[in-house]
């Protein structure tokens, strides 16, 4: 287990979050780019984006090639994770900041995968790559290299924050809290994919019985930053009647959008038991004899 993250960014501390130290502003990031003990990792949906320009000092992490096992549908092993962090120059006490496109979808996903190994010394920059670009901050094409580290990884622990298909089925049967973070047409079953995205293999449209519809983007402002804690509670607790002390599962299509919501519920609102179902709809919608629901549920948003 790594050391805890440092003190919260003062600009974030006043938003009412339970763990404001995991979120930083772009201004904070700009001021700390030269810190010797900081490693900046860019993780994008568009894996070519980094090469066209990235924040100075950032290294690329490919969500598919670096975080997923090349053979088994699973994440990397302890040995593979350890080799990755050694290559990136990350040690057990290094502060890692993840950022990326799509308002940090894949940055939150990488953050979540690191948490499977207990790497808690990590942050997200509020608004991600888009906010950095909108503010016309520096982007470079030169790659940064750091000395190989001697990082020692812990064994991966999926049970704490990861849900599998049997967990989802049992949770649904027990009427547990579940949040479907996909778009409304995906939730209702009108679409098998996000608007303007290709069909990604789900045979059926709809949602898991009992899942409540809160599209991931509702947690974000127009500039991609997270809404305040009060605004988030109004959505998840006021509208959807979620309770922070009840076990909760988030899912989407392949696990990246639900990582964003997992982050919001876990760190910004302090929910104590949130698991991300990374198999999500590409697994659930294809699994034999899994029950689904179409249309809009009474507690879903439209």
What does this entry show, briefly?
With 302 residues, this protein is α/β, with parallel strands linked by helices. Helices cover 29% and strands 11% of the residues.
Please provide a written account of the structure.
- With 302 residues, this protein is an alpha/beta fold.
- The chain folds into 2 domains: 10-134, Rhodanese-like domain (Oxidized Rhodanese, domain 1, 3-Layer(aba) Sandwich); 165-284, Rhodanese-like domain (Oxidized Rhodanese, domain 1).
- 29% of the residues lie in helices and 11% in strands.
- The protein has 10 helices and 9 strands.
- The chain has helices at 10-13, 26-32, 78-87, 101-116, 128-134, 165-173, 184-188, 229-239, 256-268, 280-284, and strands at residues 23-24, 38-42, 58-60, 95-99, 122-125, 177-180, 212-213, 248-251, 274-277.
- The strands form 2 sheets. It has a 5-stranded parallel β-sheet. Strands 7-6-8-9 form a 4-stranded parallel β-sheet, sandwiched between helices.
- Helix 7 links the parallel strand 6 (177-180) and strand 7 (212-213).
- It is globular, with a radius of gyration of 19 Å.
- 42% of the residues are buried.
- The mean pLDDT is 93.
């Amino acid at each position: 287990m790594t050391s805890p993250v440092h003190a919260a960014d003062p600009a974030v501390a006043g938003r009412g979050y339970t763990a404001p130290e995991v979120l930083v502003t772009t201004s904070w990031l700009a001021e700390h780019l030269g810190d010797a003990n900081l490693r900046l990792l860019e993780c994008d949906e568009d894996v070519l984006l980094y090469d066209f320009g990235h924040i100075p000092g950032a290294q690329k992490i490919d969500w598919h090639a670096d975080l997923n096992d090349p053979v088994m549908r699973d994440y990397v092993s302890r040995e593979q994770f350890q080799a990755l962090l050694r290559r990136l120059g990350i040690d057990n006490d290094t502060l890692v900041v993840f950022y990326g496109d799509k308002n940090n979808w894949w940055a939150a996903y990488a953050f979540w995968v690191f948490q499977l190994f207990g790497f808690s010394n990590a942050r997200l920059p509020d608004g991600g790559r888009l906010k950095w670009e909108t503010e016309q901050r520096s982007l470079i094409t030169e790659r940064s290299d750091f000395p190989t580290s001697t990082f020692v990884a812990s064994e991966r622990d999926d049970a704490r924050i990861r849900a599998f298909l049997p967990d989802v089925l049992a949770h649904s049967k027990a009427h547990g809290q579940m949040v479907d973070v996909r778009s409304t047409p995906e939730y209702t079953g009108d679409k098998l994919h996000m608007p303007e995205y290709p069909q990604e293999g789900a045979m059926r449209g709809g949602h898991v019985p009992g899942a409540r519809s809160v599209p991931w983007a509702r947690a974000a402002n127009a500039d991609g930053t997270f809404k305040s804690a009060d605004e988030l509670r109004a959505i998840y607790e006021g509208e959807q009647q979620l309770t922070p002390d009840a076990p909760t599962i988030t899912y989407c299509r392949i696990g990246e959008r639900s990582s964003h919501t997992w982050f919001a519920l876990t760190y910004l609102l302090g929910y104590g038991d949130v698991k991300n179902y990374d198999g999500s709809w590409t697994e659930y919608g294809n699994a034999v004899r899994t029950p689904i629901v179409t249309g809009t549920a009474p507690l879903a948003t439209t």
